[in-house]
Amino acid sequence: MKRGMKRKGLLQTYWNLTIFLSILFLIMDIQIFLINRKAGYIGGIYWIASLLIVAVFNWGGRKKIRRDLIEFASNYGQMQMSMIKEMDIPYGVLSEEGQLLWGNDKLLEVIVNKKSARRGISNIFPEISFGKLPKDSENKVVHVQAQERYYRCVLSLVVSEGKGISDEALEFDHLIENKRIIAMCMYEETEVINLEKVRDAENLVVGLLYIDNYEELIDSIDEVRQSLTVALIDRKVNKYMQRIDAISKKLEKDKFFFAFKQKHLEGLMESRFTILEEVRNINLGNDQTATISIGIGVGKGTYMERYEYARAAMDLALGRGGDQAVVKNGDKEQFFGGKRVQIERNTRVKARVKAHVLKELIEGKERVLVMGHSIGDMDSFGASVGIYRIAKTLNRKAHIVLGEITSSVEPIRVRFDTKEYESDMWIDAEKAKELVDDSTLLVIVDVNKGSYTECPELIDLAQSVVVIDHHRQAGDAITKAVLFYIEPYASSASEMVAEISQYIGNGLRLHAAEAEAMYAGIMVDTNYFTNKTGVRTFEAMAYLRRNGADAVRVRKAFREDLNEYKIKAAAIQDTELYRGEFAIAESSSQGVESPTVLGAKIANSLLDIKGVKASFVLTKYNGKIYISARSIDELNVQVMMERLGGGGHINVAGAQLKDMSTKEAKDIIRETIDNMITEGEA
User: What is the pTM assigned to this prediction?
Assistant: First the structure.
């Protein structure tokens, strides 16, 4: 195909200059002719001569000029291509789909496998996925790694008209046809990355170490051995700090501050903080065991920020029951230890202090909203009723946010359908949103994760939030509460509320229905007083009995439906005993009013089988798979459920899985068990 060469720009101006000058000379000659005819004739002769010379030059040398221009452009283009090809920076051209069309020598050295790159650059750099390719004029920056080298890859979309490009000028013919291409330029940042790694390794990590049960330890031994016990713990801690070249300082009798280089942190995490076990193994000569909690703050910010991270990590460790280490890096937390059952603290000082603070908060507001977790159980219901009575005793308006009422709760709830209670005692989530304002106190019971509550939006709307829970905290716990009362060793939230009620004063006395609701909550969460019961549990039960709780009436309310009993028997019959120690079963939700509650009952029953370390019951309900996990004392099911996005207690936990079948959920449980056994967690 013959293509014409079109002159434009400055070249066209130079080309037309002779014509402009000829016209100018003609005008000048006419003016001379008008002044002097003879001079005009002479000028005309010279003008005609110059016109002939320009014509000969323009038409006769046209091909030679074009040839010279093309040769110059070709040499210039080849020089450009040569410079790009030999450029020390990796440079390439991609199609819109991410296929490598062309690359300079340096790029080919980096990618090595050219054929694989032609199929897709993501085969070489997985970081450059199709979604990372630019779709408009805005450049995309992607950080990639090739072998041990690191690069900052800048991707730019280039829109080409495809005109005037000769095949000889490019090595890829189809580039002419593709109007949109992606230019890829890679800048090496290996030295910068390595320097950042060195800096991070040399960064100081801030940590706190607390002795969880210091007062109980000291009280449990005679005065002669008290100083020896403290010295043994101090020696263990100091030796451990020396191993990691840490600077440590004892702040108080049971608190340590320490700092060390970040390069030692990975080793500590791989060993899962052996100091926890070392302190626990100290022989005190009695049944008491010393436990410690560790909070570590990591980050690239200031030392003060790292210290705040360490404090937050320590709060999280203590909120989860202690005897564990928490490493916090910004919003990310990692947990180590916490596999043992927490030791119950017999002191009621904390309950008394929390009751006093709660009383002040309620008295400072006009209205109290009480909310538990979604698909509320008996403990959530009982604790809510207890807070309701506290608010009414303090002469404040009170409402309980209640959504779906399960069959396990309904037999107790109907006792409140009397004239003794206001009609708006129960409200739904929408009504609660309308009521919440600056003069409203939101009290959340039996849950510390916002996403698990009956109405998560209320947390954002409320100015003042109180959390009362007995589940161990996780990294995504509610953070805006003005009062946190988390006691992982407590049997239930109802037990905690029963304790608080005794210190509110103002002549508070529970009604019989309220006492029975809380009694039922404790009974269900302790699996009829066989799990997590302590001295304070029975003290709370005694308080509830004095307020009119009837154990026989509560027991009758929990009698099972025949259909549910058959489903329970079928699930137990089809139970899989994985590795001979872990019971995995599936519970049907067909014809069951409270499938999740039934799943929990089945999980409890499976623990009665000899040799079973833990039980896991899966219930498919409302598009989700609910997992009820139970153990006695050999496996921390709470840590396991946290890996699946759930949580709970050491012996009682659960999780919810979405968008998968029951078979896939069982596979995940088996895989998690295998991983925990490999890591020494099971």
Answer: 0.57
